[in-house]
Amino acid sequence: MTQILSPNANERWNVYGDWRRAASAVPVVLDGETNHIVTRYRDVAKLLNATISTVQPRAGEFPAHIGSGPASIFYRESLPHMDRPEHSRLRSVVMKALNPRTVAGMASWVADIISRALDQIDATGEVDVARVLSAGIPAEVACRMLHISGADTALLFSKVDDLSAIVSHEPLTPEKLQKADEAARFYADFFARHIAALDLGGDDLVSSLVQASRAGAMSESELHTTLMGLFIASYHTTRVSISNAIFAIGTHGDQRDLLIARPDLSEKAWDETLRFMSPVHFVHRYVSERLNLDGVTIEPGQRLLLGLASANRDPEEFDQPDRFLVERGANRHLAFALGAHFCLGAGLSRLEGRVLIHDLVTRFPQFEIAADPVWTGDLSFPFIRELHVRARP
Questions:
Q1: Which end of the chain lies in a sparser environment, N or C, as judged by fewer CB atoms within 10 Å?
Q2: A single GO molecular function, which one (predicted)?
Q3: Is domain 3-390 in CATH 2.60.40.1090, yes or no?
Q4: Rg of the Cα trace of the chain?
């Protein structure tokens, strides 16, 4: 039976339980469109890797509701919404710029940003870490990575939610589309001026991308869209995961004690957070040819919602999937996806997460969750809006 699915976060449903025990492809109606939710690890992984999987229903076809304004350009030129061959071309440019050596070169200043953020906890004793750490750290990292001055930070981040509406599963009203267009126009103008004012020529991320654009590997519009995408993506998912990590560690005393004794497990703890509380619950895909998924026929043009969160709790893939275990081995979680759209920022995410968890449990080993978290977000991106922590060195 087709089920009616609301994207409203206030009607959150059990992605970790009922859905993963359901059939391989559960038909639902979302915003009047029939979708199939895929919940099991083996099926989600297969579809993420499959050459017949696409992010566009048909080549060059995009949702009509995104319109034709600046926000639609951001949508069309963003890597998450591109298919081969354009996706392969643009992804190779970004991969060369955001390579392991580039990320390793960020380590010292990322650690400094995290240390200064933790100083704010030291000064207050109790703090909303969703604001101070989860929002503050990735915001400063994103700005430093893209050579954006602190004076521009507040204005830039004030537009993030407006532009993000273009990729949300919430209904895109005319008012939201207008704000998304205004935000996209603002970001495009900002990055055009920003690039023109920079003294470029090094081997940093921005210089590498600008050089690639000038060499013809990407258009000027694609350059601006890529910088916009890096700015938003490096902020949003890490923001979500920092709150998730602090909440998971703070509510699992045995695992917190293990991290205190062995802070070298910090990177494993970050990956376990990504599995246990996936920052992105769903990504969409289509198939270019008819697919049979355990008796369910998926036709080309029908949208699939791949459940990353439910797959990451699949008992067929993970032993004791509903336990948060920082020593978990062979953690092949899907939080970064797989295949052609594997997250380009995975290395930076792991750098920030490793340092944050290490320094948090070292400086404040007895921190406590002071109140229940306040959740917000939509079907794909639920996140903690408020998380008050009481710090005790």
A1: N
A2: oxidoreductase activity, acting on paired donors, with incorporation or reduction of molecular oxygen
A3: no
A4: 21
